[in-house]
């Protein structure tokens, strides 16, 4: 079943439960695709001490590529507009976030069966990534693992705490950075981000109560 069909069914169930519960306010479900031209990755070459920035690629990468003799480290970035600026759904500035899930399609997992990952809430310009975004201080972080078995599948990540913090700060975009956990030095992962193809595009699903 298509992922949006599943989400629509869950939305109806949540709305029904909300209406039957003690809270008279309905829970609204918003689906927001990432802004592909604003997504990207940054690679740092420790030998040359140089950065390579790629904006809007069809796959964004993070981790350390063992095939690279310089062992460049990649960090990946996703941008989800919350204000409808790219034609998507809007999260009202006064909404109370109930839950949030980030869904990504994994098209590469290399060099390690488990890829320990830090997912950072960050801010960066929508006009393009900068060198300083590679190591900017995160607004909030959480940890998770990706696995070799995730290759060719969708992975859903609970990002409720990150989305609640983004809402508290009033940022216009929910922006996250994928970083290889600092306690490991191997693992490389690719997230599919094809332009004009929503079937595997990164998707942020937010449930919220308006006027919260």
Topology:
Blueprint: H1 3-20, E1 28-33, E2 40-45, E3 50-55, E4 59-64, E5 73-81, E6 96-110, E7 114-122, E8 140-147, E9 154-158, H2 160-169, E10 173-180, E11 187-192, E12 203-209
Antiparallel strand pairs: 1-12, 2-3, 2-5, 4-5, 4-11, 5-10, 6-9, 6-11, 6-12, 7-8, 7-10
* Average residue-wise pLDDT: 89
Structural class: mainly beta
Identify the CATH architecture of the largest domain: Sandwich
Share of residues in helices: 10-25%
Compressed to H and E, one letter per element, the order equals HEEEEEEEEEHEEE
Q: Please tally the β strands and state the result.
A: 12
**Number of helical runs?**
2
The end-to-end span amounts to 33 Å
- Major sheet characteristics: 12 strands, antiparallel
As for the CATH topology of the largest domain, it is Jelly Rolls
Portion in strands: 35-45%
Describe it.
13% of the residues lie in helices and 43% in strands. Strands 1, 2, 3, 4, 5, 6, 7, 8, 9, 10, 11 and 12 form a twelve-stranded antiparallel sheet that branches. The chain folds into two domains: 1-31, no CATH class; 33-194, Jelly Rolls, CATH 2.60.120. With 212 residues, it is mostly beta strands.
């Amino acid at each position: 079943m298509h992922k949006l069909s599943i989400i629509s069914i869950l939305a109806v169930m949540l709305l029904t439960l909300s209406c039957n519960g003690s809270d008279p306010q309905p829970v609204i479900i918003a689906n927001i695709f990432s802004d592909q031209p604003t997504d990207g990755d940054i690679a740092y070459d420790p030998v040359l001490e140089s950065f390579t920035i790629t904006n809007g690629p069809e796959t964004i990468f993070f981790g350390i590529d063992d095939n690279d003799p310089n062992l460049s480290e990649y960090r990946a970035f996703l941008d989800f507009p919350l204000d409808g600026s790219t034609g998507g759904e809007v999260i009202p500035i006064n909404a109370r976030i109930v839950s949030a899930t980030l869904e990504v399609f994994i098209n590469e997992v290399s060099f390690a069966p488990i890829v320990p990952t830090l997912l950072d809430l960050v801010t960066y310009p929508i006009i393009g990534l900068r060198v300083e975004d590679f190591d900017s201080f995160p607004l909030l972080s959480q940890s998770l693992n990706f696995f070799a078995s995730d290759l060719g599948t969708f992975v859903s990540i609970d990002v409720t705490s990150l989305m609640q913090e983004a809402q508290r700060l009033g940022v216009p975009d929910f922006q996250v950075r994928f970083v290889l956990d600092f306690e490991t030095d191997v693992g490389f992962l690719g997230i599919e981000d094809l332009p004009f193809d929503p079937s595997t595009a990164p998707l942020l699903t937010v449930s919220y109560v308006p006027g919260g």
